[in-house]
Design goal:
By secondary structure, the protein is an all-alpha fold. It is built from 7 helices and no strands. The protein has a single domain, classed as Winged helix-like DNA-binding domain superfamily/Winged helix DNA-binding domain (Arc Repressor Mutant, subunit A, Orthogonal Bundle), CATH 1.10.10.
Length: 118
Amino acid sequence: MAFESDAERLQKDPAKCLVQKKERRGLQEAAQERQKTGQTGSEPEEDAIRKERNRRLLKAVWDLPEKYRDVIHLFYYQELSVREIAGVTGRAESTVTSQLTRARELLRRSLKEEFEFE
């Protein structure tokens, strides 16, 4: 069995790849926070709210046009720099920067009520 790269997994099922990465990061951050505060876990209601917000965020990302979805995934979920994204996608760095800016604006608009942006 060969191991798939992140790019291969993203091409097969981008939504699943995004969800898994987000869940791993969220679990790691929650565990670190619990260790700092000495808490044993969070309330079930808080978990349900957080999961629903994450689901809505991922849906909003998935609903973006592909060129924006790709740069958002690579920047936030794969933690690549603009330069690295340009290299991977074959786009100019200025194009990647513009696409990130436009993608953030589209997400801000679609999630305005959910996350109460100004």
